[in-house]
């Protein structure tokens, strides 16, 4: 057992020694630790084993040294021999080296000089090469500076682009190139700012020049339109005939002159200016190119469009007093035309800066504003001449913009609204003209002393009367001075209304219809109103009213000539289906009826004035034996008045006479039945009867011819039967025949007879205090009371029946 353990420990020690020999000294610790961790006395045995191993190695070293010792000794001996030779060689080498160094020192100096020159030469070549690369960069940069100074910004941007893409990359390692590269973006921004400043100056410039641009464009459009119109008229009328305007008043004027006054030559010599001649567009082109090169075109387009929209809103804002003069409208239109002429030029001269959609949007916005402004300001205008000039301006304005491709249909629609307003201003103007004519008229027939005066009147008014033409001079025409003046003014109104219809691109039928409608308004509203107001004026007497009726008759007859006049102007046949007829006939008929009614009214007022002068003594015992003075004056007035009515139509005079007699009879009846009249005597009845007899005599004298039989006397039949009943005192007959168609007192109403009888009854009681002592008076009083009772029963029966 002990032997086995000894063998194992020996084997283990061998292994440990092998590990120690083969392992790095830094890692021998764990191996040595295993020696101490083993069995007791293992350390001692290991040390013994270690000493044995050391002795073994020493013996091997000693064997090896003994083996190589002789060789080592031989080598040392040879080395000592070589030592002496080496020292000699060292002396020779040192001497050779000294002599070589002395000989090569000059060569070395020359060689170094050569090397230095070669380095300089190489540096110079390199410098030249680099300078050749840098010089184009510097030249381009110098060129850039010159372009900036001369404000050639677009070329400067191209130069920058070449510098950045071609030249600077070749010499980018140099500092000055880096500085240059850093400067270029700043220069670009500077160019952008400068070009934007130029654009702002351009926008301000075109804002100032818009007026002149628009004026030039509108003048050219007007010349073009006038020239085309002249050619069309010349073609339609023939080259040998002079050109006449639509109203037929004279040769067509070209720019205020006749075609043969050399105006065309002057216009040919006059330079035709365009927007390019008035405004320098280079700033906007330059700015557009610059922003395009810089890749910021969209920003520029948005800015330009935004600024132009702002300017459009400013241009569309009118002056507050624009409606006062035509120059205000002209300046407003010039600015708008100038604005859109510039936009049209920009549209066609640039690619995409503004588009047709943008200009159309801008124009539609402007058109709505223009129409609103014109509608508002034109409503303030009361001068038809100013409205007509405004219409001409609108037509030229529309033609000008239509020539640039803008739609203007809404402007012509607006002209139809303004046409109605123009007609209204014409109607107001002609109302003043008519009133002035009526105020200056003397309302007496026109006297003509000779043939020349007669032709002067008939040349102004279509009057034809065979009987008057046969009369010798001097003679009188039935109408007053206002008739030819009114006729002339109606024609002048037609001319004025026609002026507005020119250049509206409407057919002759439409123009004819417009003329007839406006003329109808003049007749039915303006002239009719003036006639009605004239008739109602208090200072217009019966003579004037008679003359007014005569005047309206002649004006009514002249209406057909007015229709022919319109037909000759428009060349539209009156047989056309939709031709509007003039309503002058009804106008003058209404005026005549109003004058007739006013005659009746004034006659009745005059009769009332005479009636108010009546001063009856209702308690008189007997009549004066003659008619009252006021009544005779009234009858004389009526006779003289009806003599004036000889020129009136027969029915008018007859109606006036019948109306006067009826009103007189009614007034006399009311006088008898006046509630304030309490008593009336038989003497007063007799006196009243005398007055009625004079009225009947006047009626029977036929103051106005044309009455059949005693028609006029029937106006007094009620009074006559009532007075006969009281004068004859025929109550028995009245009461017996009451209600019979053949009654003698058929027109006497029981209530009328009762009212008058009660007044006589009261008089009998008051004046005959002692009547009860006289038998006749007592019988009469009883009879009155009996009749009163019977009349009351009749009146009561009538009221119950009704």
UniProtKB/TrEMBL annotation:
GO terms for biological process: Golgi to plasma membrane transport; intracellular protein transport; vesicle tethering involved in exocytosis. InterPro entries: EXOC6/Sec15, EXOC6/Sec15_C, EXOC6/Sec15_C_dom1, EXOC6_Sec15_N, EXOC6PINT-1/Sec15/Tip20_C_dom2. Residues 49-218 form the Exocyst complex component EXOC6/Sec15 N-terminal domain. Residues 411-759 form the Exocyst complex subunit EXOC6/Sec15 C-terminal domain. Keywords: Exocytosis, Transport. It comes from the Eukaryota. One of its GO terms (cellular component) is plasma membrane. It holds the Pfam family EXOC6_Sec15_N. PANTHER family: EXOCYST COMPLEX COMPONENT 6, SEC15. Component of the exocyst complex involved in the docking of exocytic vesicles with fusion sites on the plasma membrane. Belongs to the SEC15 family. This is Exocyst complex component. It comes from Chanos chanos (Milkfish). The lineage of its organism: Eukaryota, Metazoa, Chordata, Craniata, Vertebrata.
């Amino acid at each position: 057992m002990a032997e086995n353990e000894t063998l194992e420990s020996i084997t283990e020690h061998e292994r440990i020694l092998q590990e120690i020999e083969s392992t790095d000294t830094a890692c021998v610790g764990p191996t040595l630790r295993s020696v101490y961790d083993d069995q007791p006395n293992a350390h001692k045995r290991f040390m013994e084993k270690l000493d044995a191993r050391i002795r073994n190695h020493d013996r091997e070293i000693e064997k090896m040294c003994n083996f190589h010792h002789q060789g080592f000794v031989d080598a040392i001996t040879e080395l000592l021999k070589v030592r002496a030779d080496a020292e000699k060689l060292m002396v020779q080498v040192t001497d050779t080296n000294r002599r070589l160094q002395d000989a090569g020192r000059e060569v070395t100096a020359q060689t170094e000089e050569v090397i230095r020159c070669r380095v300089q030469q190489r540096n110079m070549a390199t410098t030249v090469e680099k300078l050749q690369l840098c010089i184009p960069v510097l030249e381009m940069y110098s060129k850039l500076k010159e372009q900036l100074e001369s404000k050639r910004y677009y070329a400067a941007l191209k130069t920058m682009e070449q510098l950045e893409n071609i030249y600077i990359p070749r010499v980018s390692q140099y500092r000055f190139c880096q500085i240059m590269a850093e400067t270029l973006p700043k220069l670009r921004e500077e160019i952008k700012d400068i070009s934007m400043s130029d654009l702002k100056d351009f926008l301000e410039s075109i804002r100032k020049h818009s007026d002149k641009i628009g004026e030039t464009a509108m003048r050219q459009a007007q010349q073009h339109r006038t020239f085309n119109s002249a050619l069309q008229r010349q073609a339609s009328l023939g080259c040998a005939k002079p050109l006449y305007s639509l109203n037929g008043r004279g040769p067509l004027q070209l720019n205020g002159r006749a075609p043969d006054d050399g105006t065309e030559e002057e216009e040919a010599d006059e330079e035709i200016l365009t927007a390019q001649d008035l405004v320098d567009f280079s700033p906007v082109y330059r700015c557009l190119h610059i922003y395009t090169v810089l890749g910021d075109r969209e920003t520029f387009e948005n800015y330009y469009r935004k600024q132009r929209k702002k300017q459009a809103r400013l241009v569309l804002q009118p002056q507050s007093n624009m409606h006062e003069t035509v120059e205000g409208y002209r300046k407003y239109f010039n600015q708008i035309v100038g604005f859109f002429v510039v936009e049209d030029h920009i549209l066609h001269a640039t690619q995409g800066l503004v588009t047709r959609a943008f200009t159309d949007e801008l124009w539609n916005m402007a058109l709505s504003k223009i129409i609103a402004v014109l509608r508002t300001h034109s409503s303030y205008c009361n001068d038809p001449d100013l409205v007509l000039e405004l219409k001409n301006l609108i037509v030229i304005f529309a033609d000008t913009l239509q020539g640039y491709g803008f739609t203007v249909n809404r402007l012509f629609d607006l002209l139809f609204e303004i046409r109605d307003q123009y007609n209204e201003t014409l109607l107001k103007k002609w109302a003043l003209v008519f009133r002035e004519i009526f105020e200056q008229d003397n309302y007496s027939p026109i006297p003509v002393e000779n043939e020349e005066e007669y032709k002067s009147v008939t040349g102004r008014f279509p009057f034809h009367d065979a009987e008057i033409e046969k009369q010798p001079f001097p003679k009188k025409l039935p109408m007053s001075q206002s008739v030819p003046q009114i006729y002339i003014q109606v024609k002048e109104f037609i001319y004025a209304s026609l002026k507005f219809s020119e250049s509206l691109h409407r057919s002759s039928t439409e123009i004819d219809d417009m003329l007839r409608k406006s003329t109808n308004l003049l007749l039915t509203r303006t002239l009719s109103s003036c006639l009605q107001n004239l008739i109602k004026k208090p200072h217009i007497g019966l003579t004037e009213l008679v003359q007014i009726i005569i005047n309206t008759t002649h004006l009514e007859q002249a209406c057909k000539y007015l229709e022919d006049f319109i037909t000759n102007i428009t060349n539209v046949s009156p047989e056309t289906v939709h031709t509007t007829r003039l309503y002058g006939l009804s106008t003058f008929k209404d005026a005549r009826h109003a004058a007739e009614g006013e005659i009746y009214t004034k006659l009745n007022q005059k009769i009332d004035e005479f009636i108010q002068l009546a001063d009856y003594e209702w308690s008189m015992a007997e009549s004066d034996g003659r008619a009252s003075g006021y009544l005779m004056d009234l009858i004389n007035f009526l006779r003289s008045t009806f003599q004036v009515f000889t020129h009136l139509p027969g029915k008018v005079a007859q109606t006036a006479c019948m109306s006067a007699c009826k009103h007189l009879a009614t007034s006399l009846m009311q006088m008898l039945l006046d509630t304030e009249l309490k008593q009336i005597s038989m003497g007063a009845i007799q006196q009243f009867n005398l007055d009625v007899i004079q009225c009947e005599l006047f009626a029977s004298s036929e103051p106005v011819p044309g009455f059949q039989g005693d028609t006029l006397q029937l106006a007094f039949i009620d009074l006559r039967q009532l007075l006969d009943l009281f004068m004859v005192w025929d109550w028995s007959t009245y009461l017996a025949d009451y209600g019979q168609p053949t009654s003698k007192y058929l027109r006497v109403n029981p209530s009328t007879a009762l009212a008058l009888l009660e007044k006589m009854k009261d008089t009998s009681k008051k004046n005959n205090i002692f009547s009860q002592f006289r038998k006749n008076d007592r019988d009469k009083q009883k009879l009155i009371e009996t009749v009163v009772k019977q009349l009351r029963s009749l009146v009561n029966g009538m009221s119950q029946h009704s």
